[in-house]
């Protein structure tokens, strides 16, 4: 085991380091891991004061090969050679969720050390490589994985930060961001889980239906005698058919004589005067 794997015993983190790395709306390039080990009665393997502590990843610019924070923690806990007859419960608060490789190594450790249970609370989700499969592998090894909420942030502040008596001050968007990341983690660990549905709505209880008292049975009058119809009437009488009307034969067309010549009247002649005179004379 590397000497650098052991954390500084009960050294506290300064406030700025905690806020910079655990604030879930930031995107730091470092990973910090705070841990707690619940020691069973009779344990003598964990050095005094080392049941709580924190460490960070070993970057490239530091001496020696780079090392992720999760791997440094495995180096530390493996060095204790925990008693396999006892049960140990380990809780980690980590600024980034484990990458695929670290998740695989943690899962292998849990399968090889069934006397150790592990809970991981992450401030945010690491989203590079095959991180989803890694987290599902870690869950399959019976590790509990969750997103840090206000309660976990406050616990880390009180346990691992040199706060000088100052209370934890939640930052803006802490709770909404935590809820959002929790939903993302749920879909990663349970990819077939449906979207969250609003709770079912039940209207206020309605008053019981009112039914009136039973009505008396309907009364029907006695049966009426059948209707009386008069005897059938004789059929209507129609006289015999009349002979068809008689029309005489067609008359010949009227005959008109040829046109007569116009009447000829002789020219007027005066009556002879003597003749009339003789008549008047003879009558006198």
UniProtKB/TrEMBL annotation:
Pfam families: APOBEC2. The keyword GTP-binding does not apply. Keywords: Hydrolase, Metal-binding, Zinc. Residues 27-138 form the CMP/dCMP-type deaminase domain. This is Apolipoprotein B mRNA-editing enzyme-catalytic polypeptide-like 3Z1b. PANTHER family: DNA DC-DU-EDITING ENZYME APOBEC-3G, MRNA EDITING ENZYME. The keyword Iron does not apply. PROSITE patterns: CYT_DCMP_DEAMINASES_2. One of its GO terms (molecular function) is hydrolase activity. Its cofactor is Zn(2+). CDD domains: cytidine_deaminase. Signal peptide: none annotated. Belongs to the cytidine and deoxycytidylate deaminase family. Gene3D superfamilies: Cytidine Deaminase, domain 2 (3.40.140.10). It comes from the Eukaryota. InterPro entries: APOBEC_Cyt_Deaminase (IPR050610), CMP_dCMP_dom (IPR002125), Cytidine_deaminase-like (IPR016193).
């Amino acid at each position: 085991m590397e000497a650098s794997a052991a954390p500084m015993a009960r050294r506290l983190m300064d406030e700025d380091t905690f806020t910079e790395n655990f604030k879930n709306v930031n995107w730091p390039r470092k990973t910090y891991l705070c841990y707690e080990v619940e020691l069973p009665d009779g344990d003598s393997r964990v050095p005094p004061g080392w049941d709580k502590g924190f460490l960070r990843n070993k970057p490239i610019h530091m001496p020696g090969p780079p090392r992720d924070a999760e791997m440094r923690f495995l180096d530390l806990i493996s060095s204790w050679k925990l008693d396999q007859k006892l049960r140990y419960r380990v809780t980690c608060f980590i600024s980034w969720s484990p990458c695929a490789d670290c998740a695989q190594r943690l899962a292998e450790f849990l399968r090889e050390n069934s006397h150790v249970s592990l809970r991981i609370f992450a401030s945010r989700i690491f989203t590079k490589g095959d991180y989803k499969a890694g987290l599902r592998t870690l869950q399959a090894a019976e590790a509990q994985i969750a997103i840090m909420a206000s309660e976990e942030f406050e616990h880390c502040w009180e346990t691992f930060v040199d706060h000088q008596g100052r209370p934890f001050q939640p930052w803006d968007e802490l709770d909404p961001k935590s809820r959002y990341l929790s939903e993302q983690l749920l879909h990663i660990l349970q990819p077939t889980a449906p979207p969250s549905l609003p709770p079912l709505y039940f209207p206020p209880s309605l008053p019981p239906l009112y039914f009136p008292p039973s009505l008396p049975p309907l009364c029907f009058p006695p049966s009426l005698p059948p209707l009386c119809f008069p005897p059938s009437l004789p059929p209507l009488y129609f006289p015999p058919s009349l002979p068809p009307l008689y029309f005489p034969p067609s008359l010949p067309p009227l005959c008109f004589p040829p046109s007569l010549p116009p009447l000829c009247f002789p020219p007027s002649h005066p009556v002879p005067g003597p003749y009339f005179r003789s008549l008047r004379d003879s009558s006198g």
